[in-house]
Records
---
Amino acid sequence: MPSPAAANPFAPRVYGTLERLSPRVAVWRNIVNSTIFIGDHSIAVVDTQVNQALAKRLRQRLQDEFRKPVRFAINTHYHWDHTNGNSVFAEAGATLIANRDTVDFMVSKAPRQKQFLASRGFDLGPDPLLPTVMAEDCGPLDLGGLTLHLSRGAPAETVDPTLVWCPEERVLVAGDTVMTGSFPIFGQPSQREGLENDGWLAALDEVRSFAALHVSPGHGPVADVAALAVLERIIRWFLTEVRRHHAAGRDLPATIAAIEHELPPWIRAIPEVWGTPRYAVLRVWAGLVQLGEPGWHHCKPSAIPEQKPGSIGADLAAWRDATNSALEGGDQALAVGCARGATVVFPDQPAAWTQLAAVLIQVSRSIASVLEKGDCFDAARRALNRALTIDPAYGPALLQLGQFHVMMAYRNGDDPTVGERHLAAALEDDRLTPRHRAEIAFYRGMAERTKGNETAARQRYAQAQQADPTFMPARLALL
């Protein structure tokens, strides 16, 4: 059965579910997993969530359910999605723990990480609070009847993993060394890490050596022996095939094209949420060829389809009509070409840049991978910034920015304040149409829904319907 959010893209969401592995161990499943160990007198949280808003939800759930203090919060590696809630648990009295390399990387790798993620549409906010206790200096952590043993893992997605082992429950927290349920990301594109050599295979052997009853992954369902075997099979296939094409003298574009064409059915059947086969090809390739700057994102082909249009005319309305006709006909490449062409012919018209952004956001909806969607998000934000450089008070552009930030917060359980500010600024433009005002009211409602203020949200949806009775998202949100 699909979830309500899957059937209705604007329905109320539950941000995170607590899944029990045993009476004393649970996993908070969300974009990233947080593993919870419940001892007789205290709790440990391993990985602190992707943002502070989700960390606060998790902290409150633990308080309501277990009525015990969180004594330790442990980071398995430096990636922002595992560390952004550190300050929330430190405020609750937890000691923050990570290995020395993780603490160093949280500082030294942060600029490239934040730059890349901002290009994908993520605004990370303040840097995560740094751990103050080093895992190398810790003996077993005592929670009362449960002990946690921290050890340095073999390099896999990153070179700094910490494995967390609970012998009493035979649960191993593997962080991003193990990912299940969808195609793996294989390391952040902006860094030199991940599938650039055979190291991940050795890391999986190390994970198996614990003979754990449950392996808690960084992302996805709790892993069993079969899930580990699938991950290993994916890794071996890409290492073998990319190296084969490289040895045959093919360049990167030819290798990508060949491998995407010859993917076996078992790989094609794996859902794409973040990582993709193309990303796996790029990661292996980065271990074979010197690509210049760290990572491979600068070498990645764009996911944005585009086809240059023919002659359309000297009237912006004609370009808008051509763009809309292409969209209605399902030709996204032509729609992008028409919208971008309008910005060339009318570079000083904020409406042209705003339309380009709207088309790019629409195109992103047909792309499965969140990171690939980021090609559209990055181009759309640059277009909106250009529109607002031309006219800082241009309401439709402010509306588009507000929509983008609010919906990103809604999907990720984050704070929608930035989007709300853009929407409030858009309301000041007296050039807005009734449709624009309906959209502003609707997205203000989505911001309230994200914060859990359901009464206020429904009032905003009703305002949207009043401004434009044909605005279907408001109807869906009220279901």
---
Amino acid sequence: MGTSAEQARQAVVATRERMEVGADLLEARLRYDLDPRQRLRRDGVKLAAGLAVVVLVGAVYVVRSRRHRRAEKPADVDWIAEMPKEWRERLQELLAEAADRGDLPSPTGRATKGGRRSLATSLALRAARMAAPVVMSAAAERIGRRQAASAPGSREG
């Protein structure tokens, strides 16, 4: 009887040691999975792709809303043609005098609010165009690795 009790104690001790090792491994795995730096290293491409998509969708939304808003404005109304004839003649005289004196500003070629995109929109679109190939190639590489790892006969781990 002494031997079976001793064997049972040894079995319990061995089981406790295995459980402690398993718990330590589980704790280490959880710490690794929950560590923000490891998560960023592991999922950085996904996060960058998601951010690029959000920026791109936001830029498209802003551009389309501005175009839509611009199309709604009655900016195409020819207000000069609606002026009385005397006013139009006086305006033409004043413009001719100003042109003769050189008082009219020359076009500078700078972007205006009515003619081109804003600086923020231009930068967002440029960043999206620059980031898209990098994000797409990284995503394709990652998908290829996953498919190769999940193919029958390949063991990773």
---
Amino acid sequence: MGEYTNYPDYNDCPDYHDHYDHKHDYCTYDMIEAEMMSMHDPLCQEIMHHVRMVCDRHDDPWRCPCPTREMVERWCDEVLYSWSPSWYSAEAETQQFGRRPLRSLVLALLIFELLRRRRRLYR
């Protein structure tokens, strides 16, 4: 078995101390989440807006703790349809890449949001 005694020592990490803001000595989950979400690429932030709208419309973690794959696929389609920038074309994406990486990104963001919404309920 591997030894897990080599934890990172933040005292030896200059980036941590140079960028650590002491006003956050007391952090809530919401503060941490907002700070980390601001690190998303602008495209992800744009898509997340649509992901959250679709989740607000359809998701109910109390009645349906684990949506089916079909539900998540349908919600992904809805996000892509509601977002649909002028430059996006599913056919062009498939021809160019042989698959649909943007759809995969939306699915990942959707699953991330669904898990985030359940984190406090089921912990």
